[in-house]
Fold:
Amino acid sequence: MQSNNPILTRVETYADYHKPMTVRGAINKSVLLTSISAGVGILFFLYCLLTQNFNMAMMGSVVGGIGGFILAMIITFKPNTAPNLAVPYALFEGAFLGGVSVLFELKYPGAPIKALLATFITMFVMLALYKRKIIRATEKFKSVVMSATLAIFILFIAQFILKMVFGSSIPYVFESNGLGIGVAVFVAVIASLNLILDFDLIENAAMQRAPQSFEWICAVSLLATLIWMYTSFLRLIGLSSND
Structure:
């Protein structure tokens, strides 16, 4: 079994006819992890704003992002750790979300709530399209979305290296212009389409009677996609708000 999430891309499992996972179990765990991340994120967001502790917001976004990424990698390569690391992963991502939201709120007031609404509206739309089989997770669809996801990952890694090492940026792509906004729209669309891959992963894993612990992997994968969607919408709103 393989996760097509931009973060979790190499997860293998095996059939378990005694205590297999279920779609309901994966959904329940997804709701749990999402609630933890959202709760921590909201509390951290409000605390930093009310106390005007913007350095803590920055620290939370950095520590949460790095911590979440490290745990996601551990879960990817050692799936048996998912039941123990899923909740800590959600906590790290909550700190990341809260910190990033504060920074965007300072620069683009109202952006976090708009991005949050866009994320959940898109999630329900994608779920409806998937359930009605309007969008199908065919092999071609998976290949296109995964290829686009990889291209986006490489683009952002290149931008990160340029910023950290040379103090420069990829021309136009990350700026508030037609190309920059177009790229931001493309990233948000690909992030949203990854939800289809996650829904398909959950259904196929259940049909193949993956072990119950795989529910945690599905939940982490889905949460990672939602976080990617939210930050993508934040970037898009921010770029669109610039003069």
Summary: The chain is about 75% helix and 0% strand. Helices lie at 23-51, 54-77, 82-107, 111-131, 139-166, 178-207, 214-241. The longest helix spans residues 178-207. The two ends are 46 Å apart (CA to CA).
